[in-house]
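Mods, move this if it's the wrong board.
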Amino acid sequence: MKAKIWPSNNPDLNILDYFIWGTLQEQVNAHPHSSLASLKASITRETRKMEKDKIVGAAERFRSRIERVVAAGGSHIE
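Not the wrong board. Structure tokens:
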């Protein structure tokens, strides 16, 4: 039976974890929210304001991130 190889569950290899969530969190938490609706509206607004070139740039750096994780033996980087 051939073993199944699963990709690493390393957040350094997930653009949502290493770029998008951190960027959104910084912007959304810049001020307190008095309600869930306010929080949701802020998330939506900040998501729409994200610059496409920055997201593309993060995706383009993906290969180098993979290489650094492999060099680190699968451990976290940075």
